[in-house]
Amino acid sequence: MADILVAIDQAGLDLVIDDDLRAQLEALANVTWRSDLGGADTDTYAAAIRDANAGIVLTFWGSPLLTRGAMQANPQLKYLCHIAGTVRRIVERGTIEDGLIVTNWGNVISRICAEAALLMILSGLRCATAVTLDMHVAKTWPKEGRWMPRSLFERKVGLHGFGAIAQELAALLKPFGVMVSAYSPNAPDEAFERLGVTRATDLTALYAENDVVSIHTGKTDANYHIVTAEVLAAMPDGAVLVNTARGAIIDTDALVAELQTGRIHAAIDVYEDEPLPADSPLRGLPNCQLWPHWACPTRDRIIDCGRLAVQNVTRFLDGEDPVNRVTLARYDTAT
């Protein structure tokens, strides 16, 4: 029977491994449950893997970093199943180079993030923050002339990035009869054709030609502050900018300056500094909707990630390839 180490704290386990999934895991293998390894140093972690004789390790937010050395000290370890998204803080790149199979939640939560982006688009068009401040704080009746609510129907929507989340959003947008374009040099033509999305070849043009732009690109060196003051200035008056990707994709100072003119609206879920500082100039702007990095996964749907993990462990033990494998290319471009 195989041996598994679950290196997840109790709070994380309560989110992603319910009683049914726990029983499934224990039917598959000898499972060692370690909820005390958060922040463990390399030697402690390597010893825990060795003591469990683990060929598989399950991790989640807050699990320790698996270094190349810790892996080399445990030649029986073949597969790390990360139940969350980014693996950069969970495994060193060298472990993948050495042949460790690594997977993450992949696309299982893409629809949840797309749902959040749709909410933010709609509430941005309807000036939800300004209305909320008027109704709840100022206790006044909003005047439409100040903030003009608009519909999403038949508008032009641009997607900055066209990975799994953006593709899910494109599908959600279909009932609104919108015209969708996307900027993503590496996305395959098949995805554009399947979803009826126009490929944009110029980033500034994407921002300039759409009523709404939703950001879904990765946090890479090339994308750092790629949404510059010039790109923001190209947006039409009244345009809505949504960001559920990563804060550093937008030059925050430039965004604040543009929002302070009142010319555009923004709905932001991610920031360069998180938690968002209390004195952030983004706070209090009536044309800026702020979310606390809650786009996904929602608490009720994060169990989907645990189910996928158990399915992947089953595949691995059956000699099949687990899905959502993190290759070196995916590792290097992940947010």
Helix and strand arrangement:
Blueprint: E1 2-6, H1 10-16, H2 19-28, E2 29-33, H3 42-52, E3 56-59, H4 68-72, E4 79-82, H5 93-97, E5 101-103, H6 110-125, H7 128-138, E6 156-160, H8 164-173, E7 179-183, H9 189-195, E8 198-200, H10 203-208, E9 212-215, H11 229-233, E10 240-243, H12 252-260, E11 265-268, E12 288-290, H13 303-317, H14 328-333
Parallel strand pairs: 1-2, 1-3, 3-4, 4-5, 6-7, 6-9, 7-8, 9-10, 10-11, 11-12
Give a quick precis of the structure.
The protein has 335 residues and is α/β, with parallel strands linked by helices.
Under CATH, the topology of the largest domain is which?
A: Rossmann fold
The helix tally amounts to: 14
Helical content stands at 25-40%
How would you name the CATH homologous superfamily of the largest domain?
NAD(P)-binding Rossmann-like Domain
The largest sheet has its strands arranged as 8-7-6-9-10-11-12
The stretches of 5 or more residues where confidence is low (pLDDT under 50) are none
Percent strand = 5-15%
Order of helices and strands: EHHEHEHEHEHHEHEHEHEHEHEEHH
* Domains, number: 2
Q: Nearest-angstrom radius of gyration? A: 22 Å
Mean of the pLDDT scores?
Answer: 96
Total number of beta strands: 12
Question: Any key phrases for this structure?
Answer:
335 residues; alpha/beta; Rossmann fold; 7-stranded parallel β-sheet; 5-stranded parallel β-sheet; 14 helices; 37% helix; elongated
Structure explained in plain terms:
With 335 residues, this protein is of the alpha/beta class. It has two domains: 141 residues, NAD(P)-binding Rossmann-like Domain (Rossmann fold), CATH 3.40.50; 181 residues, NAD(P)-binding Rossmann-like Domain (Rossmann fold), CATH 3.40.50. The protein is 37% helix and 15% strand. Helix 2 runs parallel beside helix 13.
